[in-house]
Design brief:
Subcellular location: Secreted, Cell wall
Pfam families: Gram_pos_anchor
Protein name: Gram-positive cocci surface proteins LPxTG domain-containing protein
Membrane topology: Peptidoglycan-anchor
Strand order of the largest sheet: 4-5-1-9-8
Strand content: 25-35%
Number of helices: 2
Largest sheet: 5 strands, mixed
Main location: secreted
Radius of gyration: 41 Å
CATH topology of one domain: Immunoglobulin-like
Low-confidence stretches: 44-62, 157-165, 257-271, 363-400
Length: 435
């Protein structure tokens, strides 16, 4: 009788186990789904709040403001005052006899839109002052205040007592092509110095505290999005007056590496200049020549810079240039072919050549066969590899794990059936024994 009771208990336990196990799975899945729905609701609410906050910030940032410029002791020194707003010059209006100049009302301006101020003197001289040199006040009731403590004045280089070696900044103003170049450089004292863009404005300037004068600046270099270099001499730029230690340059037209070729009626060749740029050996030669149309033409050095160029008005194209000749201080001649130079793009009628290494007299005496590069060797890393195949199945890709488990409930059902079969067998064996 005891054995029979045990069998009944085992059977009841098995049935209860099968009943509760699927229910727990469903309950867990329901809880997971509810949690996921809750997370989605919280995330949606957060996104809506963030969107609302962003819109609020935009509305507050783009509020209507006025621009107030306060001059101290020189409000009568200028006939017109302008502010550069979103790359456009807007005139400021003077308020009676006060030193206050303001922009027109209802202007939708913020601080980032203002880059510089321009002052026109009675003699029609333009003086440009960047915002970085002006004291900026707090915004009060939609007003941006600027104070200029010292009066801007154009420097007179002929005036006695003016030091020509004063500390200056270099300002390059682009018109409509400020976003066409990755980097812009100025050649100062023979070295390339990168110009820094001022926010979203078309103004580029050299780092502060540079000891520069006009004669130290020879050309500008523009790096396009395709990593192409365009070099422009300062003779092709509009140069402004020095104001408060600033040298201003304006580029009226955008540059590109596909400038149209001006064809003549007879030969179709444009007038160009040849620019040769040396790096570290500018003082190692007494004369430098270029062979043009079969004739040697001397290149003229530009001051103390490493730039040599032909005289203006030469009717040259790339095909006319064949060789360069360097004459050392001891009258030794070094002939260098064009293949040893880096050739730049033609910009504003200029052909540029760069020589990175100094030519030496014994460079031409070397055996050409010694410079023959060895045959290329096959790199085993370039050989394509095939995946391992075992039993007709390719190897699983790296980073993935094989499925070694089973998420079903079949084992529980088999275990229950086994328990019930065992109980039934014992019960039948018990009855058979009693008979």
């Amino acid at each position: 009788m005891k054995l029979k009771r045990y069998l009944y208990l085992i059977t009841l336990f098995s049935l209860l186990f099968f009943y509760l196990q699927p229910s727990s799975n469903v309950s867990a899945e329901s809880k997971a789904y509810s949690q996921e729905q809750t997370n989605d609701t919280v995330q949606s609410t957060t996104e809506i709040n963030l969107l609302t906050d962003t819109n609020t910030v935009d509305v507050n940032t783009n509020k209507h403001t006025q621009i107030h410029l306060h001059l101290k002791d020189c409000p009568n020194d200028f006939t017109h005052v302008y502010a550069n707003l979103k790359e456009q010059w807007i005139e400021l209006t003077r308020q009676g006899n006060s030193p206050l100049f303001i922009a027109l009302d209802n202007g939708e301006f913020v601080k980032d839109d203002i880059t510089e101020f321009k002052f026109i003197t009675a003699t029609n001289i333009e003086i440009i002052i960047p915002v970085s040199e002006v004291k900026i006040g707090v915004e009060a009731e939609g007003t941006i205040n600027y104070w200029l403590e010292n009066c801007p004045k154009a420097a007179d280089p002929n005036q006695p007592g003016v030091d020509p070696q004063k500390n200056t900044q270099i300002h390059l103003h682009l018109k409509d092509c400020k976003d066409l170049y990755l980097k812009i450089f100025a050649r100062i004292k023979g070295e390339w110095v990168e110009l820094i863009k001022q926010g979203n404005s078309p103004l580029y300037k050299a780092p502060d505290g540079g000891l520069y004068v006009k004669d130290d600046i020879t050309e500008f270099k523009f790096i396009t999005e395709k990593n192409e270099e365009i070099i422009i001499p300062i003779s092709n730029l509009k140069i402004g007056v020095e104001a408060e230690g600033t040298i201003n340059y304006w580029l009226e037209e955008c540059l590109n590496n596909q400038l149209p070729i001006k064809e003549d009626n007879d030969e179709g060749k444009k007038h160009t200049q040849i620019h040769l740029h040396l790096k570290d050996c500018v003082d190692g030669y007494s004369k430098i020549f270029v062979k043009l149309k079969g004739k040697w033409v001397e290149l003229v050095r530009q001051g103390k810079s490493p730039l040599f160029k032909t005289l203006d008005g030469g009717e040259y194209v790339k095909d006319d240039i064949s060789l360069f000749k360097f004459v050392t201080s001891d009258n030794k001649e070094i002939i260098v072919p064009l293949s040893a130079f880096k050739i730049g793009v033609e910009a504003e009628g200029t052909i540029n050549y760069w020589f990175e290494q100094c030519p030496k007299p014994d460079a031409a005496d070397k055996d050409e066969n010694s410079n023959t590069p060895p045959p290329p060797t096959k790199d085993e890393s370039d050989t394509p590899t095939t995946p391992n195949v075992e039993d007709g199945q390719p190897e699983a890709p790296t980073g993935t794990l094989p499925q070694t488990g089973d998420s079903g409930n079949i084992l529980f059902y088999l275990f229950g059936i086994l328990l019930m079969a065992t109980g039934a067998f014992l019960l039948r064996w018990r009855k058979t024994k009693e008979i």
